[in-house]
Amino acid sequence: MVRSSLLKIGPIEVDIPVVLAPMAGVTNSPFRRICRSYGAGLYVSEMISARALVEMNEKTTRLADFAPDESPRSLQLAVVDPKIAYKAVSMLVETNAVDHIDLNFGCPVRKVTRNGGGGALPYKRNLFKGIVENAVQAAGEIPVTVKMRVGIDAQHETYLESGKVAEDSGVAAVALHGRTVEQLYAPSADWSTIAKLKETVTSIPVLGNGDIWVVDDALAMMAETGCDGVVIGRGCLGRPWLFGQLAAAFKGKEIPKAPNTLEIADLMVRHASELIEWFGDYKGIREFRKHTAWYLKGYPVGGEIRGRLGKVESLEELETHLGTLELHELPAENYRNMRGHTRGPQKVALPDNWLADPFDDLIANPEGDSSASGG
Predict the structure, then answer these.
(1) Is 352 exposed, middle or buried (0-12, 13-18, 19+ CB in 10 A)?
(2) Could you report the per-residue pLDDT of 241-259, keeping only the tens digit for each?
(3) What is the pLDDT, as a whole number, of residue 1?
(4) Cα–Cα distance between 82 and 276 in angstroms, integer?
(5) Which CATH code is given to the segment(s) 261-330?
(6) CATH architecture of structural domain 7-254
(7) pTM of the model
(8) String of DSSP letters for 87-119
């Protein structure tokens, strides 16, 4: 049985309990627009460096842009310094730039964790609490949420304590990726951690993330864990139409079938066109190249055309190659094909002596969040 489809993030009400996970180089405004066209949801920006935003870094400012028709405007911040957290959030609120702010405490990328950011930061209890409290205070009526991982590794799990601290600090929701930083994207996400967090954090929504590739995965996660919604990351790479299927499922309607190759070709042209309009001809088409393999993953399309599509130089060239595709449906056995990162486990990069004392106020690198974007 499908549970209530409404998700409340502070004053924001979303018709279905589905959130687009921030993904660097992917969840820019054109991709969010494509996803949003398939149905309701909360569509979050790429991870943005709080410090670079405060310093008005041109690249970061552009990454933080929203299209005029985007609502609600949801932005994720990477931050390692409580003072910068306050300044960045204050700037966003004072300029009426956003409707929702998410704080990233789950990024497993080495260049982020080695500076004490992302998934490494919650281990420093006082630092984590200071950042969250400052962000909530600066945000005022704008809801703040937290996204995190289980911990650094199995010996240094932090999610239950961090979830409770976030709840007590006034955040509007918490999201958990059911893996540690060490696990990266393998083995399978441990959904039982999401269930435990839901038992611990009781006054605000708890969202689950990890290994949601098809509609049934989302429904299963919510049924097994009791979580209030799902966060979709790699599952929507090349498949923004998954949001349409999820919208139908949560509304109790017939789930649309996966598009065929000709419909995918039209979608690819639309996506590339949006990127070109946003970034310009040269960068736009190059931003799109990585998407070509994701869009065609699982479809019976030859390797030769896949190779050509990954090197396209213009929208016209893309259209020419796609015009040679034959009509094929997505085979049922390929519905759950993995896309994006699949690596793991990894050796976690941490600042020197990071694990020595979880209660000190050490900021490993005050400019550590600048590696997240822009700076």
Answers:
(1) exposed
(2) 999 999 999 999 999 999 9
(3) 44
(4) 37
(5) 1.10.1200.80
(6) Alpha-Beta Barrel (3.20)
(7) 0.95
(8) HHHHHHHHTT--SEEEEEE----HHHHTTT-GG
